[in-house]
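Write out this protein's structure.
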Amino acid sequence: MTIAPAELRATPRWRPTATYPERPADRPSGSALAGFIDAMIDLGITGQVFGEHGIGKTSTFFTHVREAYDGVRLVYVPAANLTPDDLLVNAPVRQGDELVLRQLIMRQLKPGHPFVLLIDDSLQAGDTIQSQLMQVACSWTLGEHDLRALGCVGVFLTDNESLSETAARRSDLAILDRMATLQVTAADTAWRVALARRFRDLDLTGVFRVWASLSAEQRRLLSPRTLEHVLDCALAGFPLVWGLPLLNGDRLVLPGAGAGGTPGTDEAPAILERIATELRRAGADVPDPAHVPDAVRRVVRAALRHRWTVLVQGPPGCGKTEVVKEVVREELGRDPLYFSLPVTNVEDLCAPVPTADGTLDNLLAQSFTGPGDKAIVWDEYNRPKDKATFARLMEITQEWSLAGRRIEGLRAQIALQNPPYHLGRKLLVARNTIAQASRFTVSLQVTPDDIPANEWLIGRYGGVAETVLEWWKNDIDDEGREWITKRTLERLIKLYGRGVPLELAKIYLGDGEYAPVPLIDLEARLASRQVTGLRELAADVDAWAERLRQAADDGPEGTDATDVVHRVLANSELPQLREHRGTVARLAPLLPPKLKATYLIGAAGDRQRFWIEVFTRR
């Protein structure tokens, strides 16, 4: 039985915000896309919507259908995740005393009440799916099922028709002749109103003014979705630049106009500063720090608190995966759901199964079920098992669902990946598009210095780790420290414990060549060569205190003794400092003020607290 759409129409209620206390006079119906949705539903015509990524196409459907139609549900079907048996399958069904073959339809298409069907990312579906979608688009039927009789009042297909993002075009005239097509830009969606609702108590008028003043190309790159990420980062106390996506390993640039129409210099820093200024003018606390100590831990905690999807990019072996897992365990009391993309297909996570009511339901992997809080770690995110995985993961990273089914209790998603190049060598990682890259609220680039893995090594391996770390910090240069990753350090410690030659722990480059870092000094340290560390200072603390007093009498710069003590204190990990707190409290106050200040500037919060306690101790 078909339904008259006019009977379902409701009057959307206006919700005042700090940005829009009254409904905007120039948008009484919400947006051009909302008007198109209404027209297609009223006329019973299939609607096709094309537009750039991140301008609010999908969110407009969700918001407008919910607010403008009573009792109508939006059935969201991500085409990129569909397999040929997801929409329709022939299966045996018991009828009386015998089995008959029936066509089972996707459960979402038989919800039991009126619905609008939205097929998102429709150009990213495979060829077989495209043929199935032809029947849906042309006649609102699927196999033997009439969607109108099942309650369907509207059918829409959306995507970005850029070949760089979809690798396909809809050119079959038999399909194109059955639908009305609207090309939209950010001006045609109600993204400003949506952002104003998202940040209800903050007046975003100045931010919108900054965005409107940008060039067309800059507005395309700084899409409304990316602008939302920038605002989230700003209000969480993170650098605004973390809201800009990482495109093929590099931070997105917002080029100005160059000579002869070529791209000019990157204007992103100036644009983000203008946004920060407008947020502060609106009363928001926006520190926009240049450096964030212990960034990975802080970002993961924020993701769990705010329900974010974040990306952490760092060189191999720097310890990012272990740190993320550790923080999730601390915050949720359980391990994250861990998936390594080189061995994972989205099909492994959900599969269609027949149900007793004659429909197809998607069966989720067991790890996704249950009421408890969950976090997902997508490791090796840019090393997918196949090329389609990137596209298929866009649903779960953007909509937090699999094949249209929400994952209950999902608190955060953390994707981890390596950069395309490291130490001058290309890594075997996939390229991404801006549509894929802009799914993350925070896109964080880290170096080994940003991962506090040293404390973990000391806690696990004790004195040997301290010796190896002293060599890593003091005996090799910056390039050497890049070659000797935290993972390599752990191998060195383990091989030393078994008496295996240390050279074998280094990264093997082929043809008998290992990472170009000499190990002579490390072998000497491990052979008990005399070195000065916290343990040695503590063993003769009175003598070292007297040397520092004499150094202070010699001048404000101190002497070699000053340099030795400063180097030991600066390079020691927090557990070491705490273990020798008495020694530190005696020696640190005797150092020159400019050296003592370095222990506080840019340090992580717990390390800063330690030094404040030391310097204020009486």
